[in-house]
Design brief:
L-2-Hydroxyisocaproate Dehydrogenase, Chain A, domain 2, three-stranded antiparallel β-sheet, alpha/beta, 10 helices, binds nicotinamide-adenine-dinucleotide, six-stranded parallel β-sheet, 2 domains
């Protein structure tokens, strides 16, 4: 087992360098508190896990970061490589182990472990490969961090978030799938590109399944507070329903394109997960399209299903689902997306 922290203070001959280096200003004062404030665990140190870890460090989101992977040498290498950047980063204690005890007391556990999509493979095909893996991971996380929030990233993310919810026994507000937070960013990028505006000024949600059956909520898209369809009218930019649907398809395709070009996606999901970590741990109460227990919302019934809806996120996880207006067609597409996920889930026997 490898387990290394970033704060060894024992020098040659057992001299405690930290204590020898500084003279306490008040010798009677109790030692400075060692209790950390925020701990994040990242499970799986592949392309996605490391992009997330990297973003967490650069954005100063945790006092302690615990990494877990099944490959001890790769894991130790990644830990050391990150620790060696200590002089350029905010101070974060970085730990790594194949043993889940390293994650104990985490506030947030981000799960990226798993087989990744290969070119042309749909996310739903990954399910069997990742299900048995989750039955090893999730109970360990629940045991060592019973009060944590689980953020699931591994694909197919909606089904695996359901699996994590079942295996953890956590309440649904503390089990979140990264869902379409990334798809929505891709959507906002493409819309911004089409309209030649800043993506941060584009409010737009992709909801439903993270993947092929995702739904673009055109009726609620706005740019700088202006509903997009009337914005297009004002700018005299012609549009057709089919063209709008093509933009959504482009969002879905863009993931496959990145995978076919570089073999995997990493940077955007790294930022997406860190964005969610910030909203959770800093209690930002922002609205994100993330995978939540969706039963009962927008006419979704037929079973417990996780899929992305615009949800308010804070320190206790999911605070609530936003009641935005959907057209009947959008609501129907959402229900179809739920049905597609439920069909896969029904084969799991959970
Ligand atoms: P990768 O193969 O590079 O990394 C997966 C890591 O998981 C490996 O390091 C592997 O050793 C580790 N692992 C395997 N079994 C393990 C176990 N039992 N315990 C701990 N670690 C274990 O894959 P990747 O490119 O990093 O992708 C990871 C996952 O993230 C995939 O499922 C991928 O589809 C998914 N993903 C999701 C999104 C999203 O938006 N939700 C985006 C991109 C990728």
């Amino acid at each position: 087992m490898h387990k290394t922290g970033s704060s060894s203070s024992l020098g040659p001959g057992g001299l405690d360098i930290a204590r020898a280096f500084f003279t306490p200003i008040d010798k009677s004062a109790p030692p400075s508190p060692t209790k950390r404030h925020t701990k994040i665990a990242v499970i799986g140190t592949g392309n996605v896990g490391m992009a997330i870890a990297q973003t967490i460090l650069t954005q100063d989101l945790a006092d302690e970061l615990a990494l877990v992977d099944a490959l001890p040498d790769k894991l130790r290498g990644e830990m050391l490589d990150l620790q060696h950047a200590a002089a350029f980063l905010p101070r974060t204690r970085i730990l790594a182990s194949v043993d889940y005890s390293v994650t104990a007391g985490s506030d947030l556990c981000i799960v990226t472990a798993g087989a990744r999509q290969i070119a042309g493979e749909s996310r739903l095909n990954l399910i069997q490969r990742n299900l048995s893996l989750f039955s090893k991971i999730i109970p360990q996380l629940a045991k060592h961090s019973p009060d944590s929030i689980l953020l699931i990233v591994s694909n197919p993310v909606d089904v695996l978030t359901y699996v994590a919810w079942k295996l953890s026994g956590f309440p649904p507000n503390r089990v979140i799938g990264s869902g379409t937070n990334l798809d929505s960013s891709r959507f906002r990028f493409l819309l911004a590109d089409h309209l030649d505006v800043n993506a941060q000024d584009v409010q737009a949600f992709i909801v439903g399944e993270h993947g092929d059956s995702s739904v673009a909520l055109w009726s609620s898209i706005s740019v700088g507070g202006v509903p997009v369809l009337s914005f297009l009218d004002r700018q005299q930019i012609p549009y057709e329903e089919e063209k709008l649907e093509n933009i959504r398809k482009e969002v879905v395709q863009s993931a496959y394109e990145v995978i076919s070009l570089k073999g995997y996606t990493s940077w955007a999901i790294g930022y997406s997960a860190a964005n969610l970590a910030r909203s959770i741990l800093r209690d930002q109460r922002k609205i994100h399209p993330v995978s939540v227990l969706a039963k009962g919302f927008y006419g979704i019934d037929g079973g417990d299903v996780f899929l992305s809806l615009p949800a308010q996120i804070g320190r206790s996880g999911i605070l609530g689902v936003t009641n935005i207006h959907l057209t009947e067609m959008e609501a129907q597409k959402l229900r179809d997306s739920a049905k597609a996920i439920l069909e896969v889930q029904s084969q799991l026997g959970l």
